[in-house]
Amino acid sequence: MQTMSFARPTAGQFAIATLAMAAVVLASNILVQFALNDWLTWGAFTYPVAYLVSDLVNRRFGPGMARRVAWVGFAVAIVASLMLAPMRIALASGLAFIASQLLDIRVFDRLRRGLWWRAPLVATVIAAVLDSIVFWGIAFAGTDGPWLTWAAGDLAVKLGVGVLMLLPFRLLIGRQAARTSAMSH
Prior knowledge:
Elements: H1 11-31, E1 35-37, E2 40-41, H2 43-46, H3 48-61, H4 63-84, H5 87-111, H6 118-139, H7 147-164, H8 166-184
Antiparallel strand pairs: 1-2
Helix pairs in contact: 1-3, 1-4, 3-4, 3-5, 3-6, 3-7, 3-8, 4-5, 5-6, 6-7
């Protein structure tokens, strides 16, 4: 396999990416505490944006930079989450986040040379499943409440929102995606 060369982000681009990642995780950690109904929490609507951030960074700056953004976003989000969310949710979120982000980055990188939508879609679906299993299994297992139905509902919404994130992904990568796709055919 040929080694790809990626653009190097400016300090501002790195800061924006890490702050976006941290904000998404923090918002999701807070929103997961509020049930919309017996099968869904509000966090399911915000969390898939983390995969969008990761995939955009991966596409433009490569998997190494995407991992750095994930680790910095993880650190910032976990500290803030420990202050604003219960410890069990903060820790479950941190473990689920970093495991699913690293998986998303790896899958995306392996599929990056195909059609523009394949890498972000497949990586998001696989990572969202892992995230849901780890998060819900740690955060709410053994507690009262309909956490199994919340987990199923949240995963369904994460997958749906993940599919919808293809539109901003395509718009934000613009011509770069078209060139990459055309070169691979």
